[in-house]
Amino acid sequence: MALILKAVENIPLIQKGDDLAELICKNAGDILDNDILVIASTIVSKAAGLTFLEEDIIPGAEAKRIAAINGKDPRFVQAVLDESVDVLTEAPFMLVRNKSGHICINAGIDSSNVGGGRLLKLPDRPDLSAAEIGQAVEKKTGKKISVIITDTNGRAFKNGQTNVAIGLYNIKPIRRWVGEEDLYGKVLEISEEAVVDEIAGAANLIMGEGGDGYPAVIVRGLDFYTNEDVSITDLYRDEEKDLIIRGLLELKR
Ligand code: GDP
Ligand code: MN
Ligand code: MN
Fold first, then answer.
1. Which ligand is nearest to the CA of 207?
2. Is 5 helix (H, G, I), strand (E, B) or coil?
3. From atom 28 of ligand 1, which residue's Cα is the shortest distance away?
């Protein structure tokens, strides 16, 4: 088996209104059936115009209260609150569930690779963004492809960040091993492989976090294509079933 990961070269600095599908198709070389297009959320957000200046945010009382305990700028805290549906921790950092259900630090608001002293929010509806880009690429190429939109996240328990999937199109997020046999014929009972996060992590080996300018990667050689309705929310565990979320909410009380 072999897996190919290929950077899309020559993507410009993305501006509001840019046609990402067009730019990717122009620069990706051949796109084949079953290719997985991995796109950094940063450029999806830039193209959607989701940048803002901290000084334009007016903090409310709740933002001021949280800022006083976590030491962040109250305007930044307000921006995080505006993107959040649940706040799991307030200090030393804000771990929140954002509007699309993704749990991450600061709702993913970030200034890296944005420029102009501006901050960037994550896409509001990342599955929809993935579908829009994917369908546009399919139309231009006539190929059936999958899309994963990613962001770089920290993890519980471990140092170091890794890319994770935050939006999907035409790809099964989980490979179920339940019912399969292991090497010795033992039937697997719980193994579910979060393949979209694994692919996101692999693609980030090319993207990097700095000024490399590789926000899009083609992944070839896997077979996780589906044209069924899929959603990144299939990966998000319910609060009642998640010991860590329940523990964090308990700590806040
Ligand atoms: P995130 O993980 O989605 O927050 O994105 P990063 O800020 O880590 O950037 C991932 C990759 O995309 C890096 O190689 C960046 O240099 C690149 N990148 C970010 N914005 C742009 C852009 O506007 N144009 C190009 N060509 N690359 C970009
Ligand atoms: Mn980011
Ligand atoms: Mn990144």
1. 1
2. strand
3. 213
Q: Say if residues 32 and 2 touch (Cβ distance below 8 Å).
A: no
pTM above 0.70, yes or no: yes
Tell me how far apart the alpha carbons of residues 114 and 121 are, in angstroms, rounded to a whole number: 10
> Is 70:95 a contact under the CB 8 Å cutoff?
no
> Which pair of tokens denotes residue 2?
């072999």
Alpha carbon 88 to chain centroid, angstroms: 19
Q: Which two tokens stand for residue 179?
A: 């019912």
> What tokens does 71 get?
């030491």
Q: Ligand 1: residues whose CB is within 6 Å?
A: 11, 13-14, 40-43, 46, 110, 112-113, 150-152, 207-209, 211-215
Task: Tell me which residues have their CB within 5 A of the ion that is ligand 2.
Answer: 110, 151
Closest ligand 1 atom to the C-alpha of 209?
8
Report the candidate in 119, 195, 111, 147 with the shortest Cα–Cα distance to residue 37: 147
β-partners of residue 217 are 7, 38
pLDDT tens-digit profile, the chain (253 residues): 899 999 999 999 999 999 999 999 999 999 999 999 999 999 999 999 999 999 999 999 999 999 999 999 999 999 999 999 999 999 999 999 999 999 999 999 999 999 999 999 999 999 999 999 999 999 999 999 999 999 999 999 999 999 999 999 999 999 999 999 999 999 999 889 999 999 999 999 999 999 999 999 999 999 999 999 999 999 999 989 999 999 999 998 7
Q: Which of 92, 60, 59, 105 is nearest to 251 (CA)?
A: 92
Please count the other Cβ atoms lying within 10 Å of the Cβ belonging to residue 64.
13
Which residues, including other chains, have CB under 8 Å from residue 20's CB and lie 6 or more apart?
14, 39, 43, 44, 47, 133, 216
